[in-house]
Amino acid sequence: MPNPSTYPYRRFPTIQVGAADHAARGTDAVKQELHALCAGSSKTVVTVECYPGTDQAEILALFPHAELIIHADDLAIQPAELDAKIEHELTDDPVFGIMTTWQMKNFYPEEALCAARGKIDAVTDGLVLVYGVGASLVERADITIYADITRWEIQLRFRKGQDNWHTAMHDLPQRAKYKRGYFAEWRWGDRIKDKLLPVFDYYLDTTSAGNPAIVPGTAYRDALSKAAAQPFRMVPYFDPGVWGGDWMKTHFDLPENGSNYAWSFDGVPEENSLYLDVDGTLFEMPSNNLVFGRTRRLLGAPVEARFGQDFPIRFDFLDTIGGGNLSLQVHPTTQYIRETFGIPYTQDESYYLLDAEEGATVYLGLKTGIDPDEMIAALNHSQDTGAPFDAERFVNKWPAKKHDHYLIPAGTIHCSGAGAMVLEIS
């Protein structure tokens, strides 16, 4: 057995992609690149399409004086009207919603876009800047810049008080903000991103607040091609939880957070990011950009035909060593998830135990002969009163040891008990 210290856990894996002219990081360096980009022409229309969640004030501050500035968000319908349109899809449930069928263009009246185009056409000299979410819908760009941010960074900003994009509902709980992002606004942003990935002129990484980075679109797309043709790792992130333990903290050399680290996403393109090292300049991007930009090269034709632009495998860590039982859960069947949430496939899982304490267990599957109504009544009672749910009364409890592997088909109730370090493969 190899010594684990020989293969240390890499918290910040990078993909080396060579050099690129005009790649730069830092506010002053990016400003300099943009100034050179916008100079030397009698009239230049620069469009900066922003992913929902970017700091648009930071983006605006990067640009030199402009003859005309159009904020695309101001062209959209009123926030309260947008909230009302998606109310049904977000549902009253605190966690679950319905995958949106709206597109970003549905929220931008054509008369507002036409008025913006008219203002742009009237300018004869100087810089015209169109920026914001939906900026590319104005369709007048000489230069298109895509301003991006990772979902994990958006979630961290939600926790610090940032609201969702273009909403009249402020100071929502973090969970409600995430749900709106997941089921609605990130889907709108992804559709525009997918359309622009093959054609934008520059990519602007805004994930690190106050420290943007820019790279030409051709170099960025070359980097995607290189990444898709080689083994790579995504950038993991870690978060505490009520059941979390301390195995990851000690084995992965994580910073002290005054709490635990319950779980980590280590291979979920929808949530994780990638670091691209462009001749020493580091760029962080959502891993999903690779899935969108190089779908077939990454997935292969048969997988693309089945899952489209969804990466169908997920890797995450669940740490209950020194913690408590994981939350008891069940993933819906394919038919139920399609009919109820508008999601085309479900989540089958497996638990591989990287480590386990003496007496560790896995809860898996309902006991034979239980009364479903009785179990539902017990769950409702626990939900309403906060009283503990007696899981062992209804659910099988299996002994677990290091290197055990449990298969968990969708529709099977399950969770890890305390004292386990689980690699969850979904």
Uncertain stretches: none
* Order of strands in the sheet with most strands: 2-8-7-6-3-5-4
Overall outline = globular
Helix count, DSSP H or I runs of 4 or more residues: 15
Instruction: Name the helicity range.
Output: 25-40%
For the residues shown, what is the average pLDDT? 94
Strand content: 15-25%
Largest pleated sheet: 7 strands, mixed
- Cα-atom radius of gyration: 24 Å
Strand tally: 19
Q: Would you tell me the structural class of the helices and strands?
A: alpha/beta
Note the gap between the termini. Answer: 26 Å
Would you write up a description of this structure?
- Helix content is 31%, strand content 22%.
- It is globular.
- The protein is of the alpha/beta class and 426 residues long.
- It has a 7-stranded mixed beta sheet, sandwiched between helices. Strands 9-10-13-19-14-17 form a 6-stranded antiparallel beta sheet, with no helix packed on it.
Quick gist of this model?
The chain has 426 residues and is an alpha/beta fold. Helix content is 31%, strand content 22%. It has helices at 27-38, 56-60, 79-85, 87-90, 110-122, 151-159, 174-196, 217-228, 247-251, 288-293, 295-299, 301-307, 334-341, 372-385, 391-394, and strands at 14-16, 24-25, 43-50, 68-71, 126-132, 143-148, 202-205, 213-216, 237-239, 263-267, 273-278, 281-286, 315-319, 349-356, 361-366, 395-399, 405-408, 414-416, 420-425.
